[in-house]
């Protein structure tokens, strides 16, 4: 079998000079005992259904554990599972915490406590990257973006005991050098059964589209990188052998896996030979082509998560989301459904162009096109995005615990906040009524999507506008 090699939009990074690599290994060899790292995935404090029940395996932190484990001892804690963070950090040298915005406050509390105990504290993840000056108040060092691209420098400084405030790569490392994630770090938890059975996987990084509400361009710029296809397929085979079956369920964690059609289509052709199942977030830039949906279905795709965002063309213009064309929406849905691919459709409300009609248009679209799993959110300007800078004077608060896309951030131009929230609640209740579920899911296979719908039926039946303040 001949697999095409991945193209890349960035030059491979010479991660460090030979002398830097040699210094790192010399320092590691001189250590009388390996330094001990505690890696922490914090829980969020949101009241909504974000970190409850089954949670996805934290691939990014697993990747951190894998690279850290080459030189140091690693203890891995996922607080979302109920794992307890020790009060006493005396058994560790380095406390490393990943954070997104909605759990930033918890990450900061952990960081502050570890600093008081004299530990080296490292904060990474989306939120510390976006607001590294704020994050620096709660740690020794901030990792800006991905750890792989600054690892040699960071590890050397840890061994020397002389840390920098921010570690930021001048160039991004080639994905060819990425270690295969070692899932044993996460699976060693006594509560690992709470993880989703879907195995997270990464084939690409970045998204050059540049939607103004997205954090990805801030982290990666316009870069879009690939792993060689052989590496992706080998990782799938590894997991098939690990769990002892072919029909493994994978979730691609890529920002935009379909951005380069040639790479994506070749990957799907090879996956079709493996007998796996998979799902992914995907943009609509070429899903209106029937052959793409046919190949996706043949390769084992059972669900795609699509950001429809809005049924209002003026709103889509303000988002700079060129891949979303209203005229293509129904064709995209039809193509996927013909190939038995379910749709998790994302819809956002609270834009200045929204009116009460926006809610009715969304309801009609969902019911007519039988969107299996609609997900509704409120517009949330995240720190570090152009949208945040634009909306900052109008944002009601900066309580990071409520930056979960389920809290009321600002009042839109065309309706009051109260009117917007009452319509938002009504839409969710109507879409997840028992009769509406039966209408949308008629003829669909009995699987977890049905269960998700009935969980949402119970959840939405209790909703009131007050939930969102």
TrEMBL record:
GO terms for cellular component: cytosol. Its cofactor is [4Fe-4S] cluster. CDD domains: Radical_SAM (cd01335). The keyword Iron applies. One of its GO terms (molecular function) is metal ion binding. Coiled coil: none annotated. Residues 193-414 form the Radical SAM core domain. Keywords: Iron, Iron-sulfur, Metal-binding, Methyltransferase, S-adenosyl-L-methionine, Transferase. This is Radical SAM domain protein. The keyword RNA-binding does not apply.
